[in-house]
Design a protein that fits this description.
This is GINS complex subunit. This protein is 51% helix and 12% strand. By secondary structure, the chain is an alpha+beta fold. Among the domains are: 121 residues, Methane Monooxygenase Hydroxylase, Chain G, domain 1, CATH 1.20.58; 64 residues, no CATH class. A four-stranded antiparallel β-sheet has the order 1-7-4-8. Helix 3 runs antiparallel to helix 5 and helix 5 packs parallel to helix 7.
Length: 284
């Protein structure tokens, strides 16, 4: 049997599945993975985002704080609305990347926006510090804590991708689909890492072997034994996924499973791979 749906009665405000699938997401984002209401489980986020805090200051919720003219202009132009979306895109991309066995699409636009927002938030903190008012101390602590949370998510996302690239460098470089999923920096890193691997293999053992035994399966070629020695991601590994929209009956091998919105399944990654690419499910 390829798939098993998690029984609803086992899920609660602090779901066992949510804790196991994202062990440090709660600590990083200060949120409860699930909230029960109207018979459904919906994801809730209680994190204080940079934009929310900045917007509150600029709109006069704290009359003793005044942002720079540039900062006020950004907030007035609806910057905080875009920020909320960018953070959630990064957050979901982080969880999907950590739980997927293969390299996923790089979220370049959202990361660039997040970096701009980090710079903006740091400017806000600097302005509060320069004011010298002790009443701002607690607000600075809150903003700094939020800043470090987002930096943690961003660093973890990038390191997770680099770890996957290191594990299957040759395979990703030989596959155009995966090459297109990398950023330019990641592609350069993969090429340099692959060059170091080739040099190491040649110096450590391959140079001492007969020429017809030196192949390790580069560029899709096979070894004399008829197999490739290039490691690949295991697409049959088990994953937890949550359905984001009503899908209905879905074919899982020989079984027909009904996938309703917000239901949670454990299955082989290869089965729900294209659903993840289409954004119809998310990994947890």
């Amino acid at each position: 049997m390829d798939i098993e749906e998690a029984p609803r009665e086992d899920l609660g405000p602090r779901s066992e599945y949510g804790r196991q699938a994202v062990p440090d997401a709660d600590d990083a984002f200060g949120q409860t993975p699930f909230e029960e209401g109207n018979g459904e489980y919906t994801q809730t986020t209680t994190v204080t985002t940079f934009a929310t805090a900045a917007a509150g200051f600029a709109q006069g919720q704290s009359s003793d704080i005044r942002l720079s003219d540039d900062a006020e202009a950004l907030v007035a132009n609806g910057w905080h609305d875009d920020t909320e979306e960018d953070w959630m895109v990064l957050y979901r991309a982080w969880l999907n990347e950590r739980n997927a066995p293969e390299l996923l699409q790089y979220m370049g636009v959202s990361i660039e926006n997040v970096l701009e927002q980090i710079s903006f938030q740091q400017n806000v903190i600097d302005e509060l510090r320069q004011s010298g008012d002790p009443k701002h101390s607690y607000k600075i602590i809150i903003l700094l804590t939020d800043l470090e949370r987002i930096r943690y998510i961003l660093r973890s996302y990038l390191r997770t991708r680099l770890k996957k690239i290191e594990a299957h460098t040759k395979y990703y470089l030989e596959n155009p689909i995966y090459r297109d999923r990398m950023s330019s920096q990641e592609l350069n890193f993969a090429k340099r890492h692959n060059k170091l691997l080739d040099s190491h293999y040649q110096a450590s053992c391959l140079s001492a072997l007969p020429s017809h035994l030196r192949s390790i399966g580069n560029d899709g070629e096979e070894t004399p034994a008829g197999i490739s020695m290039v490691s690949k991601p295991n697409l049959d590994s088990a994953v937890f996924c949550r359905v984001k929209e009503e899908i209905g009956d879905y074919q899982f091998g020989d079984e027909l499973i009904y996938m309703s919105k917000n239901s949670i399944f454990i299955t082989r990654y290869a089965i729900i791979r294209h659903l993840l690419e289409d954004g119809r499910v998310e990994l947890i």
